[in-house]
Automatic annotation (TrEMBL):
Signal peptide: none annotated. Belongs to the neurexin family. Residues 1-112 form the F5/8 type C domain. The keyword Transmembrane helix applies. This is CNTP4 protein. The gene is Cntnap4. It comes from the Eukaryota. SMART domains: FA58C, LamG. Keywords: EGF-like domain, Membrane, Signal, Transmembrane, Transmembrane helix. It is a single-pass type I membrane protein.
Length: 285
């Protein structure tokens, strides 16, 4: 249509912000210049946020991505995002524009409503999932979730056995550690403890994704697309673990090891254990 966005001053400090009203999965964006004018943007950054307060820049190939904009006022430049953004707020930040005109933009955003199950933890609570013994598969375990927090420390996940074996995922100083402890060092003298740390500044109040895949003695630990593969030399196949997993903390303090004992304070989204939607189960039960 006629018109478009054109700020009074054309400089690097302008942006166009959109509130989509709810968290949305954004798959593509398109831009035009100002209608019937010499005002168009030749390159821009895309930023996104859930709250409208703290912002993240769209990245591609591990670097901040500058989008190529328009070469005239009326042609539409459409860009399909390499990976979708899940956010409520978007900001288009012009970097360069037509030297013979001003900043001018018309934009379109493509996507759909993002459906998710979210649960909040206050630092004093945890969610315990008791497994169905019939459905337990000794060969394969897959746990996935997203988390968001402002706290640099907290226990996200814990599973424990009768003989002191335990499996803990914990946030420590903004980094995520996966600790696998084989309690009985006489039975498992070598490799009694495995501690893998991934990520940094994960307490930035943005969503971070976690995936733990355990097949026989092969473990894949993934945080935000960064994966650490390791072998547990056979011992992990024989971990003696109870039929329950606690999310957000450890229900019985001081039962094992020397962990920080700081329960998680923040939000989890879409917790899945071997395909089971844990938050949905908690809501319904």
């Amino acid at each position: 249509g006629a018109g478009g966005w054109s700020p009074l001053v054309s400089n690097k400090y302008q942006w166009l912000q959109i509130d989509l009203g709810e968290r949305t999965e954004i798959t593509a964006v398109a831009t035009q210049g100002g209608y019937g004018s010499s005002d168009w943007v030749t390159s821009y950054l895309l930023m996104f946020s859930d709250s409208g307060r703290n912002w993240k820049q769209y990245r591609q190939e591990e670097s901040i991505w500058a989008f190529s904009g328009n070469t005239n006022a009326d042609s539409v430049v459409y860009y399909k995002l390499q990976h979708s953004i899940k956010a409520r707020f978007l900001r288009f930040v012009p970097l360069d524009w037509n030297p013979n005109g001003r900043i001018g933009m018309r934009i379109e955003v493509y996507g759909c409503t993002y459906r998710s199950e979210v649960v909040g933890f206050d630092g004093k609570s945890c969610l315990i999932y008791t497994l169905n013994k019939k459905l337990i598969n000794a060969v394969k375990d897959v746990i996935s979730l997203k988390f968001k927090t402002m706290q640099s420390d907290g226990i996200l996940l814990h599973r424990e056995g009768q003989n002191g074996d335990h499996f803990t995922m914990e946030l420590t100083k903004g980094k995520l550690s996966l600790l696998i402890n084989l309690g009985d060092t006489k039975t498992h003298p070598s490799n009694a403890q495995i501690n893998i740390t991934l990520g940094s500044l994960l307490d930035d109040q943005h969503w971070h994704s976690v995936l733990i895949e355990h097949f026989n003695n092969q473990v894949n630990f993934t945080v935000d697309k960064h994966t650490h593969h390791f072998h547990a030399k056979g011992e992990f196949s024989y971990l003696d673990l109870d039929y329950e997993i606690s999310f957000g903390g450890i229900p019985v303090p001081g039962k094992s090891g020397t962990l920080s004992r700081r329960n998680f304070h923040g939000c989890f989204e879409n917790i899945y254990y071997n395909g089971v939607n844990i938050i949905d189960l908690a809501r319904r039960h």
